[in-house]
Each structure stands twice: as C-alpha cells, then as structure tokens.
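yo, PGG domain-containing protein is done. seq:
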Amino acid sequence: MEHGGGLITTSRVLKLFHEMGWDILRCLVPEIKYIHDRKLVNDEAVKLLSCIFQEMRQLSKLELEKMDLNTIIYDAIKHGIIEFITEMLKYNPEIIWKKDERGRTIFSHAIVLRQEKIFSLIYGLGTKKSIMVRRHDIFRNNYLHLAAKLSPPSQLERVSGAALQMQRELQWFKEVEKIVQPKLKEEVNENNKTPEVLFSDEHKELVKDAESWMKNTAGSSMIVGTLIAAVMFTTAFTVPGGNKNDTGLPTMLESHPQGFMIFMVSNALSMFSSSTSLLMFLGILTARYAEEDFLKSLPTKLIFGLACLFFSVATMMASFGASLYLILHDQLSWVTIPIIVLSIIPIALFSICQFPLLIEMTNRTYGSGIFNKPKKISSNN
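structure:
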C-alpha cells in the first residue's frame, strides 16, 4: 500500500509540475495558449467531422445528391481544408474517381487551386496513382496542363516577390511533370497546346514582373556593395596611426598588434565579400531570364549575393570598431565602447530588412519542398 501510495503521490507531483510548467510557459509566451486552444478546437472539429461522415453512411443516394457534395468538396479544396478531404477519403475512398461537370477530380482541383497539401494525398494512393494521373477534363487537359495554368491571385499573393512566385509556379509544374507519363508531356489540349506551351503563354506577364523584381533587387544591392568595396579598398591603404617613415610599415602593427590584425582581417574580409556580392549581382543583371532560370539559378545567385553583402556589412562595422579602438583607446578609451556598440545598429537594421527575404528564398530553393508524401490513406470501410 505504501508503495502504491508513493506512486500516486509521485504521479500527482509530476502532474502538478506539468501544470505549473504550462502556466509559466503561457505567461512567458502568450501565443502558446492561442496555438494550444486552436489545436484543441481543430482536434474536436476533426472528431465531429468523422461522426458526420459515419452518419452519412445511413443516407440514401438521393439524400446525398441533395447535399451537393461537389460544391462542398470544391470549397474544402479551395480553402485548403485537408482534414475534410482526408476524412472524406476514409469515409468513401472511391470519391477520388468522382468528376464534376468539367470532368475534374479532387486532385485536378487541387492542382488548379494550388493546394499542395491536398494534392500530396495522391502519393498515398499506391498503384491507383498511375491511373489517376492519366485523367483528363472535358477540355482535354491532363494534369500537366492544369499545372501549367497560372495560380489564382489568392495563392500568388501568399508568396513575396514576383521571382519567388515564378519559382513556386515552376516547382508545381516540375512536381506534376515527375508523376505523369512521358507521352502526356507532349499531349495537346482542345486549344492544340502542349503543357509547356501553355505554361509559357500563361506566365508571360509573371516572367516580366519577376525579371524586373530581380533586376531592381540586384541593382539596389549592387550600389551598397560597390560603396562598401570602395570604402574598404581606400581604408586598406590609409591605416589608423599612419606608417613609419623609414620602413613604411604601419605604426600600430608593433604597438597594438592584436587590434591592428582585427582591423586588417575584417577589412580584407569585407572587401572580398563585397566584391563577391558584386559579381553575383552582376550575374543576375546579365542573365538571360529564361523561365527555367527562376527555379534555381537566379535564386541561388541572389541568395549568395545577399549573404555576402550581409557579411561585408558586418565585417565593415568590425573594421570600423577596431579602427576607433586603435585611435582612441589611449586617451578616450571610454568613448570606444559605446561607439562600437552603436556600430551593431546597421547590422541589425540590415538583418531586419533583408534576412526574412534571404531565409524565405533559401527555404524555398533548398528546403524540403512544398510537397510531402504521406503514407497510404487508410479506409474506415
């Protein structure tokens, strides 16, 4: 009994610590409570949805037709409610073959509406996938034709910058291209267009906007990189404290070797990185801007250019701080610390302005991708 009582006491203590931990976490991070509440609501909604589908098994075919399931399913796909589609497939797996008045299945709509989570369910169909991807609508569009169409404005607006929007469009097209049969890539629709031709026609304006966005971003960054390179080049030959008349060596090299080395190394790193960023931005400005370039080539150049530019700004400020230290530390040493601290501000501002774009572009270019491949969909039949 004592042993059992000890277990109960331990369990209560652990539960108490767990509750206290949650209370502290909610106080420190208020958003945690919101996320937790939303998760609970979502779980309850999925349970309710499952119950509704269980009850629907009792309905007749006529009663189901009155419910207008096509509209309900379309709205669920349009808003990306994957929980609804997943439960629907558990309730009736054969619904994947159901077509609307335009001859489109749920996966056709997922492609047109650019709902990658719902489209990713196709990877869980097993052997049925190869049959599904051969489907056509009444306009003789196969899946690759649908992927070639321009995304709805609501989906394009979710991505910042025309270049990233174009990249996302290419990612969709390439992903669907991987799963369709080779002969479907050359198939024409009722307008006598292959998927590739349709893609080019649909994305003409977006390519122009993406090119303009890339050139403007590269041009603005190039100005900053040029200024940094010019300043660092000049600073390398006008070292603080001047040079000795007899040897020409910097005077600070002997009196403050460590501080001087920090100054010179950071100066050199800033010079090299800013020069590298200039070459990357120059490569962007002189690119041919073919559609394929927006998938990896141009984003990679911009990522590398922005990363080098950020590094050059950081090392430039380090060089500036080291220079002030060498000049003022003997007589006005108290001034150097606040000035060096203030030099962090430009780095912070640059990070706030450019880092979100850099991270987003890196994630979209080299991340796990917008599609996931779930396990086979289970049925409740």
